Amino acid sequence: MTDQTPPPIIQTRPPSETDKYLQQKFVEEIVQQANRLDELAKQLFTLELAVPSVYVTVLQLVQGEKASLGLNAYLISAFTLWFLALLLTFFTLFPNNRYKVRRNLIRRETSNNPTEGISIEEFFQKSARDKYWELVAGSVCFFLGLACAGLSIFIR
Q1: Which residue from 51, 58, 19, 56 is spatially nearest to 144, judged by alpha carbons?
Q2: 4 in any annotated domain
Q3: Which domain holds residue 133?
Q4: Which of 6, 41, 102, 151 could form a disulfide with 117 if both were Cys (CB 3.0 to 4.6 A apart)?
Q5: Could you name the domain of life of the organism this protein comes from (predicted)?
Q6: How many domains does the chain have?
């Protein structure tokens, strides 16, 4: 005597206009993440170019004709970190085809073979994540460079 209960009936209906709109905006959000990070990278690049120039100009104005600051480890570290921040930001703006994208594959659950390429959805997610971490690393280098520049003035 087995209990033969029929499976429950699941009632469905097409998505409402609000649901469709929310799904569309969700997809647009995924696509726009990388663009917003590119805009942030452009602003950071400008800032990273301007600050070392302002630093040297202020030293020139403050010290007058004797505008020579002895080379010390902090000064060298500051300009090295600023240069590294510029490089990281530059790589964010120009990724140089680092992803092998399968253009006929919109999305998939998991990738069994990493050499076969990634889907279009994975491309947007991975590029945004990689840009995020490059910008974080560049920002850390930039602010460490600021700290080293400040220390180079006070510690000679």
Answers
A1: 51
A2: no
A3: 20-154
A4: 102
A5: Bacteria
A6: 1
